[in-house]
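Hi R.,

As promised on Friday, here is the backbone we talked about, encoded as structure tokens. Could you run it through your design pipeline when you get a chance and send me back a sequence?
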């Protein structure tokens, strides 16, 4: 998938363009419906499907005190979008200057850049432009003026209510992975970069990859059965989210670390995408390291059982992996 970093770069396509426009945090089922709308329109006219999103999340610029945790940082979103076989991703830098563009000015820049703008697909409630002044009606009027079609996509519902990133964040923060999976249409994953740790896990026979995440929403503290994707290969393991009270105990720093079964590569600085497959137990403080080691042994056994009983959901990043999953 081609990645564009400015609106004028849309001119690189000579074919008719069908755009899917939105923040798309998490790429849940509602977002996917917008992407599919643009894809279908592109295919019907020998065109290209391009997703247009914004970085950072607009709320971080307009109301930073209310900025939410992300369901997918931009690097993670790019990975997820790449699985939809779109032709390009346009990342529009969202800052105070861009925020002052009116709805008409924003669409005008899009129209000016595209050699052929065929259509724009959006969620039916999408608002855009300075002060959120643009809506579906104004976008439709702009479409008529500039000769492009507008395809509004109605919300997808779950348990009687529209799916939204806010609902999914709430489900994850409460540990309701089932609901999050249902609304995402895939397992919930977090993308992290492996950073150096104190190597305490290695000293007791359970080396861990310490992951730094870019403000993505983590589930509640505890131990989880997980599946990890690294360099195209899938692995089973366990993850700990929390304060590591037995070995650290400062009660201040929240950690995210993964023990991957049968994995001994050095991957500092590399990315790992982690799927949370099931909750195993709450985090707790043990009297000594030996008790912790015995509990981790049981955690690994319980994770193997849970993972063997937990099929990879359709749409999961691991469902396309041709690599065998590893277990101890």
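Update: got your reply. Pasting your designed sequence below so it's all in one thread:
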């Amino acid at each position: 998938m081609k990645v564009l970093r400015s609106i004028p770069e849309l001119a690189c396509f000579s074919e008719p363009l069908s755009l899917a426009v939105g923040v798309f945090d998490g790429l849940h089922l509602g977002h996917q419906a917008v992407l599919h709308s643009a894809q279908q329109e592109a295919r019907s006219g020998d065109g290209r499907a391009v997703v247009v999103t914004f970085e950072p999340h607009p709320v971080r610029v307009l109301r930073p005190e209310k900025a939410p945790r992300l369901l997918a940082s931009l690097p993670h979103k790019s990975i997820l979008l790449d699985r939809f076989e779109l032709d390009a991703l346009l990342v529009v830098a969202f800052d105070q200057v861009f925020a002052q563009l009116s709805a008409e000015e924003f669409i005008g820049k899009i129209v000016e850049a595209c050699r052929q703008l065929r259509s724009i697909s959006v969620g039916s409630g999408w608002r855009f432009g300075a002060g959120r002044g643009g809506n579906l009606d104004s976008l439709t009027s702009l479409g008529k003026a500039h000769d492009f079609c507008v395809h509004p996509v109605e919300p997808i519902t779950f348990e009687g209510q529209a799916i939204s990133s806010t609902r999914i964040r709430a489900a994850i923060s409460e540990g309701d992975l089932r609901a999050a999976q249902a609304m995402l249409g895939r397992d919930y994953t977090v993308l992290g970069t492996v950073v150096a740790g104190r190597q305490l896990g290695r000293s007791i026979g359970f080396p861990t990859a310490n992951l730094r995440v870019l403000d993505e929403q983590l589930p509640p503290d505890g131990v989880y059965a997980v599946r990890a994707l690294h360099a195209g290969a899938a692995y089973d393991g366990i993850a700990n989210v929390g304060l590591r009270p037995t070995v650290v105990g400062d009660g201040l720093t929240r950690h995210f670390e993964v023990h991957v079964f049968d994995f001994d590569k050095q991957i500092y600085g590399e990315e790992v995408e982690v799927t949370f497959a099931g909750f195993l137990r709450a985090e707790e403080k043990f009297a000594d390291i030996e008790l912790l080691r015995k509990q981790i042994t049981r955690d690994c056994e319980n994770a193997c059982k849970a993972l063997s009983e937990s099929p990879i959901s359709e749409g999961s990043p691991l469902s396309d992996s041709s690599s065998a999953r590893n277990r101890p």
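One thing I noticed while checking it: The chain has two domains: 2-162, 188-320.

Thanks again,
M.
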